[in-house]
Design goal:
The structure holds 2 protein chains of 2 kinds. Chain A is an alpha+beta fold. Chain A is built from 3 helices and 5 strands; from the N terminus they run βαβααβββ. By secondary structure, chain B is α+β, with helices and mostly antiparallel strands. Chain B has one domain: Aldehyde Oxidoreductase, domain 3 (Alpha-Beta Complex). Chains A and B meet through loops of A and β5, α2, α3 and β9 of B.
Chain lengths: 88, 167
Amino acid sequence: MPTAMVHLLYFARLRESLGTDSERFELPAGVADVDALLQCLRSRGGAWERELAPGRPVRAAVNQDMAGPATPVRDGDEVAFFPPVTGG
Amino acid sequence: MNAPIGTTGLQDAGATLIRVQTEDFDVGREIAALRQANARIGAVASFIGVCRDVNDGASVAGMVLEHYPGMTERALAQIAEEARGRWDVIDLLMIHRVGSLMPTDQIVLVVVTSAHRGEAFAACEFLMDYLKTRAPFWKKESTPGGERWVDARTSDDAAAQRWETQG
């Protein structure tokens, strides 16, 4: 079975706490939406578990559109995680 | 680059101009350029957001504005499109600065032109309310206690929410 790769991006407070701004990530079998992807990342433990814990103010975008937990994630997608926005 | 798109056939077709930049902007020049290009404009509403030297009880020496290149422009264009669907406006201009800013520096400019004031006022406020909750910008302030990320305000969410029910 071909592997499904996504490009992950992290911004602002999340970028600092997680210690990275981007990575290539192989989607494990069965991971097909934002919520499942978040669960995968949490399982890394440490800052990942802490910063991405349910209830933490984390927002997501898929292919540069605001996304929700049920938004599909597919091979080749760009998925970004960040805190609530504070521009203006 | 600053000049609005020329009118092609439609007499009062305006422009949607979106810029994300580190440089400052000249409000007078931006408005003059829009007005000059279209004699159908009867009203100009503008909003300027400015960097303050105090926030949440601490003095602020400066801030750094981070954004998500690509998505930022896309989100602003979507917000502008939504405003066009709601109000009969001519031009929509949104300029947002990123990078290092000092107190008294301009952060954001929104200009709306229309035939009459009601549309321009409403669309201008709508654009700012949506920009604050949907465009991927983040502020990090320098305070005497160190650097800190600015937290999103629930009052901003409430301000944006108003437009959902008003339509």
